[in-house]
Write a structure and sequence with these properties.
The protein contains four helices and four strands, in the order E-H-E-H-E-H-H-E. By secondary structure, the protein is α+β, with helices and mostly antiparallel strands. Helix 3 packs antiparallel against helix 4. The radius of gyration is 13 Å and the shape is globular.
């Protein structure tokens, strides 16, 4: 299984096609979760069980992703950390696009 971000109730073609890969569950458990715990993050750990993100949640979620990215860049993890950073950057770019419509919800899980 894998974790991704998508819009559960799309209203147009963009929203129907919206699907952002986050991580395979094993990679999430191995890399994302320990980092999120070490940093005391609240939103990121919920990605593994699934969470709805709305426009008003975006600053908090993006803030946690920025902290996680800074942590990953400071690690000596080679390819694994590079993969983590690339997925964080993808979420940082794509989440705001999905939450432009009033009432839009992105499910990450």
């Amino acid at each position: 299984m894998s974790i991704s971000a998508f819009i559960p109730e799309p209203v147009d073609d963009f929203e129907r096609r919206y699907n952002v890969p986050v991580a395979a569950e094993a990679f999430f458990a191995e890399c994302w979760e320990p980092a999120a715990e070490a940093l005391g993050l609240q939103w990121v750990p919920l990605f593994s069980t699934g969470i709805d993100v709305m426009k008003e949640d975006l600053p908090a979620v993006l803030g946690e992703l920025a902290r996680l990215k800074q942590w990953a860049l400071s690690q000596d993890g080679g390819e694994r950390m590079a993969k983590l950073v690339s997925r964080i950057e993808l979420l940082q770019t794509e989440l705001p696009k999905a939450l432009q419509r009033e009432g839009a919800v992105v499910y990450i899980g």
